[in-house]
Amino acid sequence: MDKQTKTELEAAAFRRLRDHLAERSDVQNIDMMNLTGFCRNCLARWYQEAANERGIDMTKDQGREVFYGMPYEDFKQQNQTSASPEKLAEFEAKRPKD
Fold first, then answer.
1. Residues whose CB falls within 8 Å of the CB of residue 76, separated by 6 or more in sequence, listed in order
2. Are 72 and 48 in contact (CB under 8 A)?
3. Contacts of 15 (CB under 8 A, 6+ apart)
4. How far apart are CA 98 and CA 82, in angstroms?
5. How far is CA 53 from CA 41, 43, 57, 59, in A?
6. What is the pLDDT of residues 55-64, one digit of tens each?
7. How many CB atoms are closer than 10 A to CB 29?
8. Alpha helices of the chain — where are they, by DSSP H?
9. Domain spans of the chain, in order of start
10. What pTM was estimated for this model as a whole?
11. Residue 57: its pLDDT value, please?
12. Which of 4, 64, 79, 90 has the fewest CB atoms lying closer than 10 Å?
């Protein structure tokens, strides 16, 4: 497989993941973090970092808007619930220490 085809397939897989997560807005970011160690915000940050590495000026908020398809605050208001103390404690216990 040539490099261009590989890149196109990886991009298609990323778009499918993004779209799947958009359809499953019932899945909370805290649950994703606790189960997988990453969430929608991580994916948005990785997108932003990739843009920055290529000389494209993109802020965290701009990266999130690209990933969420709307401003992050709008997504939170429409879809995000408050995390329980137990979920927050689990997150803190699993969080990588700097």
1. none
2. no
3. none
4. 26
5. 18, 15, 9, 12
6. 999 999 999 9
7. 19
8. 3-23, 29-36, 40-53, 60-68, 72-79, 85-94
9. 3-90
10. 0.87
11. 97
12. 4
Amino acid found at 84: S
Q: In which residue are the tokens 């605050």 written?
A: 73
Residue 97's pLDDT is: 73
Please, which pLDDT band fits residue 98 given cuts at 50, 70 and 90? Answer: low
Per the structure block, which two tokens stand in for 86? 């137990």
Best CA proximity match to 67, nearest among 95, 34, 42, 44: 44
- Specify the CATH number of the domain 3-90: 1.10.3340.10
19-57, pLDDT tens digit by residue? 999 999 999 999 999 999 999 999 999 999 999 999 999
Which residue, 59, 61, 65, 67, is CA-closest to 17? Answer: 67
Q: In whole angstroms, give the CA distance from residue 98 to residue 44.
A: 21
pLDDT attached to residue 96:
75
Q: Which backbone phi and psi does 63 adopt, to 5 degrees? A: -60, -40
